[in-house]
Amino acid sequence: SNLLQGKNIVIMGVANERSIAWGITKSLHNAGANLIFTNRQERSYQKLTKLLEKNEVSAKLIVSCDVASDESINDAFSEIKKNVGVIHGVVHSVAFANRDDLKGEFLDTSRDGFLLAQEISAYSLVAVTKAAKELMTEGGSIVTQTYLGSERVIPGYNVMGVAKASLEASVMYLAEDVGKHGIRVNAVSAGPIRTLSAKGVSGFNEKAGVIEEKAPLRRNVDQDQVGDATLFFMSELSRGITGEVLHVDSGYHIIG
Ligand code: 0WD
């Protein structure tokens, strides 16, 4: 398709081939988007350039960006402005919590662990939206990635569930602020997918098993399905939608 022909879209959070952001990359690339990537670590940069080469996807630009730092975010978007100019979309696919806080009881979460999860997984969307807005002079779409652990207690998800609740509330408030500039902000709530980050959450296999047993579609979702839902949010097909959380989870969230 050519749903995103001529659109410049920033993708944050490709760590490797299993990353949700990589599934999104494939969908947006196939829709004709020009892609700009940000990643945190040198290691991810090496992996990303190899992945792009192997899949014959050409990046317009790759810049480093640690969302823990306002300076890093501002430098990244300045560089994007200098090299690309106007952007039409941002995919925010980053989160982090200490491994120790993703097992046992939520009650044991430390002050630092709580704040870290909030900073990287929720506040980062606020800071990124603010920086990106300056480059979105033709309007645009911002899409983040969330999980059901924000709406109900999912054992082990703990501090990240609370951070995702904060992320989803941020989606609403940001949608209100940037809506008047023609910018939409939405979230995709994916079912469990085996990625580097998912390995840090205790009980992953059980979670995936429950989906196969109980979700209406009786199967797990993959990165490509999240990619296509994100493409919908990036494209004009979703032009009437903002502040929304769309579940891409085989329908699991409707089951009591
Ligand atoms: O089951 C799952 N895997 C689900 C994940 C279900 C529903 C939602 N999600 C969410 C995650 O919570 C996250 O928000 O999807 C998003 C992407 O997660 P992923 O694809 O599962 O994880 P992974 O492949 O590990 O990518 C996470 C990225 C990595 O990218 P880089 O390029 O930095 O290696 O988040 C990055 C992490 O390193 N990240 C950061 N990026 C910039 N600054 C930072 C940071 N400070 N910390 C972590």
TrEMBL record:
Keywords: Fatty acid biosynthesis, Fatty acid metabolism, Lipid biosynthesis, Lipid metabolism, NAD, Oxidoreductase
Reactions that this protein is recorded to catalyse: a 2,3-saturated acyl-[ACP] + NAD(+) = a (2E)-enoyl-[ACP] + NADH + H(+)
Sections of the chain in a coiled coil: none
InterPro entries found in the cross-reference section: Enoyl-ACP_Rdtase_NADH, NAD(P)-bd_dom_sf, SDR_fam
Gene3D superfamilies recorded: Enoyl acyl carrier protein reductase (1.10.8.400), NAD(P)-binding Rossmann-like Domain (3.40.50.720)
A molecular-function term among this protein's GO annotations: oxidoreductase activity
Enzyme class: oxidoreductase
UniProt KW Repressor keyword: no
Matching Pfam families: adh_short_C2 (PF13561)
Keyword flag Transferase: no
Domain of life, per lineage: Bacteria
Pathway info: Lipid metabolism
Regions that span the bilayer: none
E.C. numbers: 1.3.1.9
PANTHER family registered for this protein in UniProt: ENOYL-[ACYL-CARRIER-PROTEIN] REDUCTASE, ENOYL-[ACYL-CARRIER-PROTEIN] REDUCTASE [NADH], CHLOROPLASTIC
Annotated family: Belongs to the short-chain dehydrogenases/reductases (SDR) family. FabI subfamily.
Protein name per Swiss-Prot or TrEMBL: Enoyl-[acyl-carrier-protein] reductase [NADH]
Organism: Virgibacillus tibetensis
Gene: fabI
